[in-house]
Amino acid sequence: MKLAKIYSLIFIPPLAQYVVTLEEVDGSRLIPIWIGVSEGTSIVMVLEGGKFKRPLTHDLTINLIKALGGSLEKVIISDLKDNAYYATIILRQGDKALEIDSRPSDAIALAVRTGAPVFIDEKVLGLCPVINKPISEDEVKNFEKEIESLRPEEFFKKLDAEGGKSKGGLE
User: Fold this and answer.
1) How many structural domains comprise the chain?
2) Of 35, 84, 161, 171, which sits most exposed with the smallest number of CB within 10 A?
3) Which residue range(s) make up the domain with 91?
């Protein structure tokens, strides 16, 4: 498993979706994952320090975990099957570890709220489209412009045509 962090989170208005790009911490790979607008907004809110008077769904989930004597240990982007990423949330309750199936967007939204680390399984890195860094600021801006008019399926087809090893990328 490789430790990862959020490299970017881009909102795509025409598609009403976000693309969260995870960065391999001790490596050069970037992994783009298309996520829903609600989950993207939930992640952005935390990254920008936003607070609401009442708990949102991801806040409620963390509150429930804590109330039951647990903690979020880590999140793993664990698989890529049929053009969809999968994640596993590892909860700790005393000496017991619990593995919970999740969408990557929900797992990441929980991780940013708790500071839990995010990992990417090596098999996912072997299956998904990978962008190698370093990339320049101009390349990032060009990617953001291009992605606004590109559906996820088109992005992965383009990577295939350029010699990438795409097998998917949606959540």
Assistant:
1) 1
2) 161
3) 2-161
